[in-house]
Amino acid sequence: MLTEQNLKFAFKMFDKDGTGYITTNSIKRHYEEFYGESVDDRDIQQQVKFIDQDCDGKISYDEFATLMRRNSSFPNFFDGD
Fold this sequence. Notes:
The chain has helices spanning 4-14, 24-35, 41-51, 61-70; strands spanning 21-22, 59-60. The chain is mostly helical and 81 residues long.
C-alpha cells in the first residue's frame, strides 16, 4: 500500500545519510548491504537517470514518490531486478 508514510519509509531506506536525496552511492551501498553483492555503477546511473526528472544526478523525495505512485514496471533497483 503506497501511503505517504510507507513512501517516506522506503525513501529513507536509501537516504541513510539524511541528505534528502537518493544518490548513486546510496543506492549502491543499499544494494550491497541488502543483497551482499556489488552492482555495476553504470546500471545504477541508468536507473537514476530514468527517475531523475530535473537532471541533477540524484533522486528527490518528490521524484521517488511520483515514480512509485505512477508506475510499478520500471527498471527496478528497489527489488534487485
